[in-house]
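User: Quick sanity check before I run a bigger batch. Here is a single chain. Can you write out its predicted 3D structure?
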Amino acid sequence: MIKFSAYCRVCLLLGLLCALSSCEKDDDKSDKAVNQWIDATMRSWYLWYSDIPDKKQLNFNAEPETFFRSLLSKEDGKNNPQVSGGHYYYSTIKKKTASTTTRSYMGGEPALGFEFQNWQLDNTGTKFAANVLYVLPGSPAEKKGLKRGDWIHKINGTWTNNSNIYDLLGDKTVVLAVSDGWNNPVTHSMELVPALIEDNPVLLTEVYQDESTGNKKVGYMVYNHFTSGPDGDKDTTYDKQLRQRFAEFKAEGVEEFILDLRYNGGGLVTSAQLLAELLAPKSALGEIFCNLKYNDKQDKTVTYRLDKTDENLDLPRLFILTGSRTASASEAVINGLRPFYKVYLLGEQTEGKNVGSITLTSDKYDYELHPIVCKISNAEGNSEYKDGFIPDWKLEGNDRMILGHIELGDKDNDKLLNVAVGMISGRATTMNKDIRSSSVSFNAIPGYSSLDRKAMNGVQIPFTSEDVEW
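Assistant: Done. Predicted structure follows.
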């Protein structure tokens, strides 16, 4: 007969307990456990939770990314034949990362410091070049002399195409062959070494006053994303700088304003609220900027108002330059100000993101959920802009490519800016509406833009569930 001492029994019991504890921890980290958390969270917060399939139809053993997508409604996002499955969903899931929270260029990763648009430049689909949209101050690109309007024809010795264009997004050194025109020969090359770069949302500000403005003082600002500060949502450095710049606009006696949102894919609702407060007529301060309507399980509507601020310009109207990637919080500003005065849009039809998103996390799991949780409306209850806003003055044909040559803030040669100035002064625009398009004999086709990676899935709501026990 085998006999166990009391000591052996204790050791065996402890061993079994440790093994069970280890298994329990492993089970907590399993795909099934993660997916159960995802399912419960989405059924509570997702705007279209009623469209989530019955649990019996779901595969809880799938990879979390796959499982998450299986929950999403066709109401979420837009049909897009260029993406896998033919539908682009706004709601996203991603692994938690240990990278810095700084909103430096490309989320805190080393980068080259410029944004671009790739173009197909012939009718055969064999010739491509990337147009530089703008360059960040202090970036490797700026230090080597790259500027807006330049064209990148070769990347590391290979002609620009739909594949190597993504090398411009990485953290590796690249050699670029550059010219000053889409059809011009290469004039020089440059080697760019990635670095960490701070990406301030205010790229450029100007004040114009001359005969073309009717001697009115006209403010102009290129604002590229709604970010409160470089170190996350609780950092308000950029918001404070925005207030200061508007205090300067006010001190300079700015009477009219042109806001350039052509490259703004969205961001924080609180930063959008601030910008609207600065631009609104004084009579609108204290009124509703936007309402966030959640699903019936959350049963709440969150209201953001146009708070009174000393830096408010008390404008009579507003001119906004838009692009096809103007979206989310940018559209919330357009929609939020429309009840109070005329908002003129010049450029391209905006994207149409009339929804908001929050970040949902759990200490137990290594994933972040970014579901669409609310619909956004203005003081008049209007939230129906899913197809985007149609501009009052629409950019035609190849004009977007042509305007890529023009320096931002050049009111005499930037067609959209020129038209806005002409509307302010009451004079006709000094530019022939069709003259710019005539220089390109074919229909250039836009391809990938680096702006796509910066697009927000919806207006960002400053909420996190990381302190909530799921």
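Residues 1-26, 100-106, 432-438, 464-470 have pLDDT under 50 and may be disordered.

User: Great, the batch can go ahead then.
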